[in-house]
Amino acid sequence: MTYNQLARKSDGDNMPISDVLWVLLTLLLYVNRVIDSLSSDRIKVLKTILAKERLLGGRDKRGKFHDNDSNAGFDCCPTVLERISPLGGLSRDGKLLQLYRDTNTVQKFYEKSCAPDYSYAPCRFINQTVYESRCVQQFTYMYAIVKDFNVTQPFRVDYIKVKSGCTCKVLRERAMEM
């Protein structure tokens, strides 16, 4: 039934309440479906942003390049250590989480990332003519005070995904030419 038909019916005839309820229910279901599709698209975009940019509320500008520890020697895959204050994160099952924050409380974490030029780059000190290798970002899960993103529910303690290092992954031995 179109809007014009509804208007004509309401002018002269009384529309049965059951018809009005069905029209309203149909309209509500349609609006709900539209909102759900927009919400899922928004969550996909937010997950992508979070994966790429970490949805940071703040990042300590004094990121430190850790090429070596004084006693440990050199790493095959150098790292950068930063203190971050994210607005959100990912749970162990991939759900988007919002971190608790107010004027007096900001949750901060130390994040150890692959150095900018080394993410997915060949590992240092590995003979690339013999082995194919890549520097790969490692992750760990840390406790934080969170709630599910865009949901009105109380905050809880749960895990969020945090970068924890950069490791060398040897992919395969290259075939030797004779």
UniProtKB/TrEMBL annotation:
<dbReference type="GO" id="GO:0008083">
    <property type="term" value="F:growth factor activity"/>
</dbReference>
<dbReference type="InterPro" id="IPR029034">
    <property type="entry name" value="Cystine-knot_cytokine"/>
</dbReference>
<dbReference type="GO" id="GO:0005121">
    <property type="term" value="F:Toll binding"/>
</dbReference>
<dbReference type="Pfam" id="PF16077">
    <property type="entry name" value="Spaetzle"/>
</dbReference>
<feature type="domain" description="Spaetzle">
    <location>
        <begin position="76"/>
        <end position="170"/>
    </location>
</feature>
<dbReference type="GO" id="GO:0021556">
    <property type="term" value="P:central nervous system formation"/>
</dbReference>
<dbReference type="InterPro" id="IPR052444">
    <property type="entry name" value="Spz/Toll_ligand-like"/>
</dbReference>
<protein>
    <recommendedName>
        <fullName>Spaetzle domain-containing protein</fullName>
    </recommendedName>
</protein>
<dbReference type="InterPro" id="IPR032104">
    <property type="entry name" value="Spaetzle"/>
</dbReference>
<keyword id="KW-0472">Membrane</keyword>
<keyword id="KW-0812">Transmembrane</keyword>
<keyword id="KW-0732">Signal</keyword>
<feature type="transmembrane region" description="Helical">
    <location>
        <begin position="20"/>
        <end position="38"/>
    </location>
</feature>
<dbReference type="GO" id="GO:0045087">
    <property type="term" value="P:innate immune response"/>
</dbReference>
<keyword id="KW-0325">Glycoprotein</keyword>
<dbReference type="GO" id="GO:0005615">
    <property type="term" value="C:extracellular space"/>
</dbReference>
<keyword id="KW-1133">Transmembrane helix</keyword>
<keyword id="KW-1015">Disulfide bond</keyword>
